[in-house]
Design goal:
Blueprint lengths: L8 E3 L6 E5 L2 H14 L16 E4 L2 H22 L10 E13 L4 E4 L6 E8 L4 H9 L9 E4 L11 E4 L5 E6 L3 E4 L7 E12 L6
Antiparallel strand pairs: 1-2, 2-9, 3-4, 4-11, 5-10, 6-9, 6-11, 7-8, 7-10
Length: 211
């Protein structure tokens, strides 16, 4: 069982602030169990999204609250890294305008896009197809590994020693936090099975009455 300590990597590999931390086994188990038990009853959220995937299912309010309870301190830490002046406030409001499962199977993908209606985007990984590590390894030996990876894109690569993109191999428990306007895409894979993740649209605001 992993300890869910407040450990988080925050950096600027592309310019925008990118945060990463690890979800607790408890939360991963909770979300996977909920999808299995009530997935058929969840609202289809795909009309609001660009994914070419098998399922994009909206969280219930209870699911959203459960995730927010765990991730809130990390979101606040991410926010304060960019806005250190807000440390003067005892509390900051973290709200979620939308949260949904992404069920991606072999051959499917998510076109490049950004998230609207928020200031912070998030993605967390809940399950991967059995044996996909072999595909990652084989693809990693290729000239441009990308299968099943998320890729962030920003700016230009016209300048020397500059990269405008960043690819990340998914790992169960990894949770990424980034600005809502950062372009990102997910590539298809060939291994049979489900690459399961979830996304959230987050906004941090100051305490009520503060301008």
């Amino acid at each position: 069982m992993r300890d869910n300590l407040l450990e988080m990597e925050i950096g600027r590999p592309l310019g925008p602030l990118l945060g990463k931390f690890t979800l607790s086994d408890r939360l991963i188990g909770y979300l996977n169990e909920k999808l299995q038990s009530v997935g058929e009853d969840l609202a289809d959220y795909s009309d609001n999204l660009v994914g070419k995937v098998s399922g994009e299912l909206k969280f219930t309010d209870d699911m959203t609250r459960a995730v927010l309870e765990e991730i809130q301190p990390y979101i606040v830490k991410y926010h304060l890294t960019y806005f250190p002046q807000d440390k003067r406030f005892e509390t900051l409001n973290v709200s979620c305008s939308a949260a949904w499962f992404v069920r991606q199977f072999n051959g499917e993908y998510n076109p490049i896009h950004v998230h609207n209606g928020c200031t912070i985007s998030c993605v967390g990984y809940l399950a991967l197809p059995e044996g996909i590590e072999k595909e990652f390894e084989e693809d990693g030996n290729d000239h441009h590994p990308a299968n099943g990876q998320i890729e962030f894109a920003y700016g230009t690569s016209a300048a020397a020693y500059t990269s405008g993109t960043l690819r990340k191999v998914p790992k169960v428990g990894d949770f990424y936090v980034f600005p809502n306007g950062l372009w990102h895409t997910v590539y298809p894979f060939t291994t049979i099975g489900e690459r399961r993740s979830f996304s959230m649209n987050i906004t941090v605001t100051l305490p009520e009455g503060v301008k």
